[in-house]
Amino acid sequence: MEFQKNKFFLLILILLLIFFDQLIKHWILQNIFLDGKIIQINQYLNLTPVWNKGISFGMFSNIEDINFFMVVLTIIIILFLFLWFFKTVSFFQRLALTLIISGAIGNLLDRFKYEAVVDFIDFHINNLHWPAFNFADSLITIGAFIYLIGIFSSENN
Asked: Fewer Cβ within 10 Å of end Cβ, the chain: N or C?
């Protein structure tokens, strides 16, 4: 029974994280993208409007119809991740998949709505910039780290 509650809670969490991701992006689109302005938070962090039409880090964004390919690929990956989510008994794996699925769906919704992903978080040191990313990307990254922690932890169930 605990197993089922855990799954149900994490499915609700997926919905909440997707909602939060889309809410953040909506605010960013209304307050930063319209004017194309850059908001400097501190010497290492800016909010910068970026439309990512490609894959990670904007790679292959110049390929025509890349959005269609990315939508199809993302849907296939999300379906696989959901199957894995329901099959696994590991809490670490299920939590990691919750975050990864949430981020993937958040970015997929962007691709449906805008044919690009809304990126805006710009970390940098002087003129060295990490490619802009968003909340959904952060969920995917944190999920991957949790998965790795689970692999190396003593959890075997």
From this structure: N
Place of tokens 């110049």: 62
Paired tokens of 19: 């909602």
Where in the sequence numbering do the catalytic residues fall?
119, 137
pLDDT exceeds cutoff 90 at 2: no
Angle between the 66-87 and 2-28 helix axes, to the nearest 10 degrees? 160
Question: pLDDT digits over 32-67, tens only?
Answer: 877 778 888 999 999 988 898 866 655 555 656 777
Percent of the chain residues past pLDDT 90, beyond the cut: 61
Question: Taking a C-beta distance cutoff of 8 angstroms, is the pair 107, 37 a contact?
Answer: no
